[in-house]
Amino acid sequence: MKRTFLIFVYGCQMNAYDGDRLRGAMKDMGWSESDDVMDSDVVIFVTCSIREKAEQKVMSELGRFRPLWEKNRRPFVALLGCMAQRTGLDVAKKFPWVRVIAGPRSLGLVPMSIASALAGGGPFICLDSPTELDDLSCAPARANNGHKAYITITHGCDQFCSYCIVPYVRGRFGSRAPGEILNEARRLVEAGAVELTLLGQNVNSYGKDFAASKKNYSFANLLSDVASINGLKRLRFTTSHPVDFTDDILDVMVSHRGICPGINLPVQAGSDKVLKEMNRKYTKAQYVDTVNKIRASLPELGLTTDLIVGFPGETDEEFEQSLKLIEETRFDLVHSAAYSPREGTPAAKRTDQVPPPERARRLALVNETQSRVSAEINEALVGRSFEVLLDEAAPKGEGLLQGRTITDKVVLVKANPAMAGTVREARITGSSPWCLDGELL
Ligand code: SAH
Ligand code: SF4
Ligand code: F3S
C-alpha cells in the first residue's frame, strides 16, 4: 500500500532543516511525498510562533481539514515545530484530525507516531520537556535542492529578549557536538551539496556551553573546520547575535575564501532605551562599532539586519533613531516587523503598547526608507561582474534562473536549468531594490 505525506514548512530556516530531516526519515520508512492534500494520508505542518500572524495562518489552515475529516477520516494532520510546542494541547482538543503533535526537539518521535496514527492510534502528543535537552533528530539532513543544504548547529536560545517567544518554545541553548556536525557536513557535500548554511538562533555563541567541560571549541573553530571540507564551495551561517560577534570569527572569514561575506546581524532598534528594554545587551554605538569592524575586515560585504518597530513604549523620537540607523548603516536588506505581543514574554505584559495602526505606520516608513537605500546600493553594482551560484528557476520570467552572489544578492540570468548548482560569472545589467538582473559571461 502506497502511503503519502505532504509537508508545509513555515518560519525560519531551522524549520526548513527539520523539514528536510523529516522528509528523509519518512522516505526511508517507505512513504512517498505528495503535492496534493486530497492525495495525502498525512499533512505535516512545521510551524512558527514568532508573531501572532504566523500562528493565525496555520490555525485557519488546520480548520479547513474539518469537512474532509468528517467525510473520509483522511488526511490527518501532524502539527510540529514551535507552535505545536506552544499551543499543541489546545489544538489537539479543538481539532480531532490533528493526530500527531510534537515540539522541535521531539522530531525523532514523529515518523513512528505518524505510522501509528495512520493505523488508527493517537493522538500522539510529544511536547519537549523543559529539562530534557536531548535533540531527538530523526535522520541526518539531506540537501533540500541538491546543491544547497542547512545544518542546525545550536538548539534553543538563552538570550531572553523581552519580546521573543523562541526561548520558551525552542528551549535552552545547546551546541551540537563538532564531530556530529562535521560528519553531517561531509555527508552532504559527498551527496552533492556545494553550499552549506550553519543555523542557530545565535550561531556565534556556538560552543560557549562547552566551556564548563573545558572542551574549548568555538564557532570560529567550527567555521574553519567546515570550510576546509573538500568540494564545499560556499559556507554561510545565520543568525549572529551582535554581542558574540568576536574577532576570531572575522579572522577565519578572511582566511577562508569559501566562507561567504554575507552576515545577518539583527539590530532590532536604533534607540539605546529601547535596546535596553528589549534586553539586547548592546548599545547602538557598540552595534555600529561591530559593523565598522566587520566592514574593515570584509570590504565586499552583504549586511542585513532584523528590526522591530513599535516595541512597547517606543516614542516617535526613539523610532526616528531606527530610521536614522538604517540611513547611516546602509544595510543591503532589513527584515522588518511590527512588534507582536507574545503571551508569556515580559514585553507583552507592558501596559504601554503602541497602538497597531501606529506600528503599521512605522513599518511602512522603515520599508520605504530601506527600499530607497537598497535601490541605491544595487544600482551601484550595475556593470560589475560577480560569481553567482545558480539556483532554481526564478519565480517569474521565462528561461530565467535565479542565483546568489557571495554577498547573498539575488541575480536573475537567462540560463539553462541544467546549470543549477554551478558557479558562473555574471555581469550585472540592471537592478531593483530586491534583486539584480545579469547576463552570464
Ligand atoms: N535569534 C535571532 C532571530 C530571532 S527570530 C536574533 O536574535 O535576532 C527572527 C526575528 O523575528 C527577530 O530578529 C525579530 O526581529 C523578529 N521578532 C521576534 N519576536 C518578535 C515579536 N514578538 N514581534 C515582532 N517581531 C519579532
Ligand atoms: Fe529571540 Fe533574542 Fe533569542 Fe534571537 S536572541 S531568538 S530575538 S530571544
Ligand atoms: Fe519561528 Fe520557531 Fe524559527 S518561532 S522563527 S520557527 S525558532
Characterization of this structure:
This protein has 441 residues and is α/β, with parallel strands linked by helices. It folds into three domains: 4-126, Rossmann fold, CATH 3.40.50.12160; 148-379, tm_1862 like domain (pyruvate-formate lyase- activating enzyme); 385-440, OB fold (Dihydrolipoamide Acetyltransferase, E2P). Helices cover 34% and strands 22% of the residues. The chain is built from 13 helices and 19 strands. The protein has helices at 13-28, 52-63, 66-72, 82-94, 110-118, 166-170, 178-190, 219-227, 247-255, 272-278, 284-297, 316-329, 356-379; strands at residues 3-9, 31-33, 42-47, 76-81, 98-102, 124-126, 148-152, 154-155, 174-175, 195-199, 234-238, 262-264, 302-309, 333-338, 385-393, 400-404, 410-414, 423-431, 436-440. It has a six-stranded parallel sheet with strand order 2-1-3-4-5-6, with helices on both faces. A five-stranded mixed beta barrel has the order 15-16-17-19-18. Strand 13 (302-309), helix 12 (316-329) and strand 14 form a beta-alpha-beta unit. Helix 8 packs parallel to helix 9 (247-255) and helix 12 packs parallel to helix 13 (356-379). The longest helix is centred in the last third of the chain and has 24 residues, at 356-379. It is globular and about 60 Å long. The protein starts with a strand and ends with a strand. FE3-S4 cluster binds next to helix 1 and helix 6. The site of S-adenosyl-L-homocysteine has 17 residues, from strand 13.
